[in-house]
């Protein structure tokens, strides 16, 4: 969707769609041109049809929603933006456009999504039917495709939050994701309740923990997707859904992480993705205690196998690690190589090296250019850093309006620094009008996702009563939370 021509939303969802069509944000297909329309699947809030286009052999999938309201329309348009961002990745079902079915009884048109049709089974069904005939090579290929897809999406700043074996298709031995979280978002926004029992084993256990530490519900993030991948790797290797025939109480959910870690530990192979994932779990203490030394060893092993995600993470350690871990020259060289391979995260990291003089001389013009390139490739950190450049005049002229716009884009991609920086814009009136309530909400969102700057900003708002009701207890809570993290890091280091 073009950034220069924003859609203007009103209370009529049909007008949103019509405006999107008129501005060529979404392609329109004439419903009369579809033939042989047959319903192939339905659930509590959507129906799927298979149809031919103009009596040809070409098939499309048509998807309708039982409640076609403003929530659904906004998420459809957002889904289209995400699809354009990843440039129609082959392992993700393509969303081509929209069609409308005239209804005599309803004032509103019945809109349907026009999607790529894949005559495949869900991963769960595929494993049930073919598992006995699958070799370890077949399982490895499925697992490898899955991890590559999610790694690619994460590099574009996209979090799925809804990975399970029922919404992943297998077609001609190729993994296909059915959407980029559209179904999850619509269900969450329209129902505002959880109906998740069928997919509990795949969901980050923190989603279910009732903790006094959380001021608002826990938001699924990249780590949550990594957790889901672990459960799917188990299912692919065993042929059984995780924790089959067991009730999903809180105690079971909290044990799942350990099960994933132990399985990976006892089933190591030479796959760079498996090695990287094990290192990631050790570094972040997922399913085990934090073990930086073991994590670094595993990262380095994955780096030797040319795993780009491991290269990016090890460069982070070389920059921000302990005294015996930091190596600015290595961080710069790794970032440079990743950038040469057009790896968006590496391009952004190289920009940061030039920005901060890490392993090279400071070159703010070069930093700006690299941030711009990473942003153009959809990297959320690059987008956020570009906003910082426009706010501070790094390699370009100060432009508060552009700073605000880039922070907004980064926040839309759930970049935590972007969310915090957008909050700061509303807090101080940077590129927008001051809105203390909006600033508070954004700080709170990022703070609950463990962003240090947001936690500090939130504590300041509570301490000073800046735009919100003064609350010293909440201020102390957030300051203590920051202090406890610092103490924990000192112990780990």
From TrEMBL:
Superkingdom to which the source organism belongs: Eukaryota
Domain Protein kinase intervals: 34-332
PROSITE patterns associated with the record: PROTEIN_KINASE_DOM
Pfam families found in the cross-reference section: PK_Tyr_Ser-Thr, Sel1
Molecular function per GO: ATP binding; protein kinase activity
PANTHER family in the cross-refs: ACTIVATOR OF C KINASE PROTEIN 1-RELATED, CHITIN SYNTHASE REGULATORY FACTOR 2-RELATED
Name of the protein described by the UniProt record: Protein kinase domain-containing protein
């Amino acid at each position: 969707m073009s950034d220069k021509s924003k859609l203007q939303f009103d209370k009529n969802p049909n007008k949103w769609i019509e405006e999107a069509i008129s501005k060529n944000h979404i392609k329109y297909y004439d419903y009369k041109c579809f033939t042989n329309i047959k319903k192939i699947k339905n659930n509590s809030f959507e129906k799927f049809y298979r149809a031919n286009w103009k009596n040809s052999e070409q098939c499309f999938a048509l998807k309708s929603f039982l409640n076609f309201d403003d929530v659904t329309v906004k998420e459809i348009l957002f889904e289209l933006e995400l699809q354009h961002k990843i440039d129609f990745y082959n392992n993700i079902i393509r969303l081509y456009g929209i069609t409308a079915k005239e209804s005599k009884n309803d004032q509103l048109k019945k809109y349907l999504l026009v999607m790529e049709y894949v005559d495949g089974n869900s991963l769960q069904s595929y494993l049930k039917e073919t598992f006995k005939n699958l070799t370890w090579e077949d399982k490895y290929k499925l697992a490898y495709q899955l991890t590559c897809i999610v790694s690619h999406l994460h590099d574009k700043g996209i979090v799925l939050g809804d990975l399970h074996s029922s919404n992943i298709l297998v077609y001609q031995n190729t993994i296909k994701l059915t959407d980029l979280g559209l179904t999850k978002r619509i269900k969450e926004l329209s129902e505002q309740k959880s109906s998740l029992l069928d997919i509990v084993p795949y969901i980050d256990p923190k989603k279910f923990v009732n903790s006094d530490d959380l001021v608002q519900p826990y938001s699924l993030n990249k780590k949550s997707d990594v957790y889901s991948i672990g459960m799917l790797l188990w299912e692919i290797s065993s042929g059984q859904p995780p924790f089959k025939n067991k009730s999903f109480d809180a105690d079971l959910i909290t044990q799942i992480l350990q099960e994933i870690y132990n399985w990976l530990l006892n089933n190591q192979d030479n796959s760079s993705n498996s090695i990287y994932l094990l290192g990631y779990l050790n570094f972040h203490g997922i399913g085990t205690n934090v073990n930086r030394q073991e994590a670094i060893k595993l990262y380095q092993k994955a780096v030797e196998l040319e795993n780009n995600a491991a290269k990016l993470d090890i460069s982070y350690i070389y920059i921000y690690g302990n005294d015996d871990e930091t190596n600015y020259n290595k961080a710069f060289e790794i970032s440079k190589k990743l950038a040469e391979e057009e790896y968006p995260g590496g391009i952004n990291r190289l920009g940061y090296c030039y920005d901060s003089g890490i392993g090279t001389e400071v070159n703010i013009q070069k930093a700006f250019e690299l941030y711009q390139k990473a942003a153009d490739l959809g990297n959320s950190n690059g987008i956020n850093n570009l906003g910082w450049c426009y706010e501070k005049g790094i390699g370009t002229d100060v432009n508060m309006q552009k700073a605000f716009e880039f922070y907004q884009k980064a926040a839309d991609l759930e970049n935590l620094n972007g969310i915090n920086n957008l909050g700061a814009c509303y807090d101080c009136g940077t590129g927008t009008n001051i809105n203390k309530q909006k600033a508070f909400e954004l700080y709170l969102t990022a703070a609950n996702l463990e962003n240090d700057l947001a936690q500090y900003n939130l504590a300041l708002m509570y301490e000073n009563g800046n735009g919100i009701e003064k609350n010293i207890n909440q201020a102390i809570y957030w300051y203590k939370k920051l202090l406890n993290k610092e103490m924990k890091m000192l112990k780990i280091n």
